[in-house]
Predict the 3D structure of the following.
Amino acid sequence: MAVNERFLRACRREPVDATPVWFMRQAGRYMPEYRTIRAKYSLLEICRQPELAAEVTLQPVRALGVDAAILFADILLPVIPLGLGLEFAKGEGPVIDKPVRTLEDVQMLKPVYAEANLGYVMEAIRILRGELSGIPLIGFCGAPFTVASYIIEGGSSREFLKTKAMMYSAPEVFHALMEKLSVVLSDYLVAQIRAGAQAVQVFDSWVGTLSPRDYEMFVLPYSQKVLEAARAENVPVIHFGTNTTTLLPLMKRAGGDVIGLDWRVPLDDGWALLGQDTAVQGNLDPALLFAPLPEIKTRVHDILRRAEGRPGHIFNLGHGILQNTPVDNVKVVVDMVHEYSVQSEKVP
Amino acid sequence: MAVNERFLRACRREPVDATPVWFMRQAGRYMPEYRTIRAKYSLLEICRQPELAAEVTLQPVRALGVDAAILFADILLPVIPLGLGLEFAKGEGPVIDKPVRTLEDVQMLKPVYAEANLGYVMEAIRILRGELSGIPLIGFCGAPFTVASYIIEGGSSREFLKTKAMMYSAPEVFHALMEKLSVVLSDYLVAQIRAGAQAVQVFDSWVGTLSPRDYEMFVLPYSQKVLEAARAENVPVIHFGTNTTTLLPLMKRAGGDVIGLDWRVPLDDGWALLGQDTAVQGNLDPALLFAPLPEIKTRVHDILRRAEGRPGHIFNLGHGILQNTPVDNVKVVVDMVHEYSVQSEKVP
């Protein structure tokens, strides 16, 4: 089967036959096939068994007809070889056993050798490249800030107070941690590309909690390292965050061929803030997948209309698919995106 | 003692001798005086005993030297006479016993008569006007969307999925609830003004979860009713939200003499989005109150510098004071703001 080129071409801002579409967290608990596997294995067990990770990655590709597969993994996997411990407490999200709070904590972080310590991820990628006949595979990692926030807070957070307090009161500790993470995450992402990932996404999911000033001082240089390391491997790089309207020009400066937009900014306004020399990905509110079909259609078409007239749009949500999302609605969005593009081409 | 006019003048964009400063949640657990009272009474007990509410309101005025007092109360108090039940579960925030999910639920909401059902709030205001020698008193309510989100979710939320699902799938229920809340909240705010509040703030704390399109369709008309009802009483009205960069022009259209800005948007950029015919309030990240003094000073001065050259800036945080905030740092910020303004006046 010929390679589905839509996604990769859109990343490079080349014309496409139809707008490519995939979804963050397209594999997961909303899918019955996934729940069947999760009934037998924990999240970490699936990640660490390459055949299982590959199978789960393929489920939405088969079920939805998306234009790209994204490796099933978790942004916090590198925390395990760093020696910090990672569990997923029932209903509470990730818990890091030994949060980092001091310079000694940073110095105690173990070196991470991607192939040796996270080889199961690369093995899943190799399996997937054999099985994904023609659909490109996206690898990914968390951006240094988002990973650091979990490592400092010890888990999820609303206020990111421990993270910010460290930035302001112990900047040398924060910078040392970010420096360390930027090396580990760069190596990890490069290893994924060398194992066969045809594009990568860097998830800075929580960076929108920062002011532009803090982003520039504390985050930009480290994200830049990771994004540039991936770029040097000659695959398209997607740079994603939420709540980032005021950070977009700085995120562009940090790097990425494609910048993710969330639903808080109309797609054309966000694109204007970035400039036409960048591709964009987004930006349906994941909650809209719970709406009736006519409402979904209105919103999907609105986004596609805002992207018209220039190449370089990848349709996606503004954040990951939510639990309990109706699978049929996800499938319908894929079809709507593809059909709209074909129809609009017929319009002279 | 003469009335401290700084705050009220700045709301009206009139020149002031020094930038006025107050803090959202300036009374609360970070203050030892407050914790002494909280050891004996629950949050709701304090709200419902006007002498206690007044005492707690006065604590930060005495301790910090702020230019305005804000009534100690909770945005969810109107939920009690609506018949929905309200508790504050330990460490979990507010819990609403009977969330609203259907049109029948909305129709079952009891009528609320502010003076009869929430008279303890107005009584606290009357006590405070007798005791606040010269410091203006701010009354407040939640905006319809933010109050509705608690009522629909049954408490706090990260994703606001039930709220959005109702907007999209049962808009008639959502609109009916918002209509009802806009009446109740307008009456409540007007009652506060008639009891003596010299300015009011409408808290739309969580509205930043919405796209501009959803804000315009589902929120703007109802916020507008509340803001206009207050405006008609001839006191300054502050319209506050977080995460609102892309909503600012619509929030201005909804109303308010002063619009709140959070730290995600540099103050001058946010002001430019609003236009010079609006006053602004903000916008230090509350986490910066945990920083060392030189860093706090740099950030406070940066905000003041961005506001220079035009009247109409009220210094505040971008959101409420966080628990465990060092009181001394809060006091220092008040002094920094006042001193900066005096110094900069000396510069020709």
The mean pLDDT of chain A is 96. The two ends of chain A are 31 Å apart (CA to CA). The longest helix of chain A spans residues 171-195. The CA atoms of residues 18 and 53 of chain A lie 29 Å apart.
